[in-house]
Amino acid sequence: MEVIMFWILAVIIVASAIATVFSKNIIYSAFSLLFSFLGVAGIYAMLSADFLAVTQIMVYVGGILTLLLFGVMLTNRITTMSLKTDVFNFVPGLIIAAVMLASLLYVIWVTGTWAKHSPAVWDTTVESIGTLTITQYLLPFEMVAIILLVAVVGASYIARKDKQNIKS
Length: 168
What we know:
Layout (H helix, E strand, L loop, with lengths): L1 H21 L3 H21 L3 H24 L16 H22 L14 H9 L3 H30 L1
Helix pairs in contact: 1-2, 2-3
């Protein structure tokens, strides 16, 4: 059952990624990206990485994709601009994809198996991540929070400075 679910999620991820890249409409690309993000979250959930699955949904689907959609829909000049999503680097991308596929097939050939068959582990990882974040990794966690705060303040300052220069 797990193998079937994996292949269903893999097909969803690959098909929606292809639809994201080759769609001529940016809204359709964004919705295709939604299904790709949800498929990746499903893979994380199958790997018993529940924290990563929820983070994938909250950050990418809830934050990044919503920001992208609102940015596209609320842009005033979107109707006057020509949005082209033509793929010009198809041949180099195809060569890189073929090299990656050959590398993966080589690793599968050398190891002699597709995946290790181990029983599914349904323990949660959130408790251990929370404990480590508040105990052993408290200083790096706080440093990342301060860096993100400085980045948000800097971005706000730069955006405000540009608005003042336009009005003057």
